[in-house]
Design goal:
This protein has 94 residues and is of the alpha+beta class. The protein contains 2 helices and 5 strands; from the N terminus they run ααβββββ. The strands form 2 sheets. It has a 3-stranded antiparallel beta sheet with strand order 1-4-5. Strands 2-3 form a two-stranded antiparallel ribbon.
């Protein structure tokens, strides 16, 4: 009887894990689709000469401007850009 209970518990655990993995795969697939769409849009605008309202609205969801702070005697503020399709893109260190 204990073996049956242990097997049932293991089966439930495996089913939950399978469900969790399926959900993760679904989110990854959706994210991949959004990234592909974003890349397609970026390519469309790769040779623009003027940044206008239409381009901004197509590519950018919102721009977040932080408070002005003084750092080493200079005013600085954080600017975060949230893009359509992919959200924020992490800063790349040069």
């Amino acid at each position: 009887m204990k073996l049956t209970a242990a097997l049932e518990q293991e089966q439930e655990s495996n089913q939950k894990r399978l469900h969790d993995l399926a959900m993760m795969q679904s989110r990854a697939d959706a994210q991949e689709s959004e990234v592909r769409t974003f890349i397609k849009e970026i390519r469309r605008y790769s040779a623009i000469e003027e940044l206008d309202e239409a381009v901004l609205n197509r590519l950018i969801s919102r721009i977040l401007i932080g408070e002005v702070k003084k750092v080493d005697g200079q005013k600085v503020q954080e600017v975060r850009i949230v893009y359509n399709f992919v959200g924020e893109i992490p800063e790349i260190a040069a």
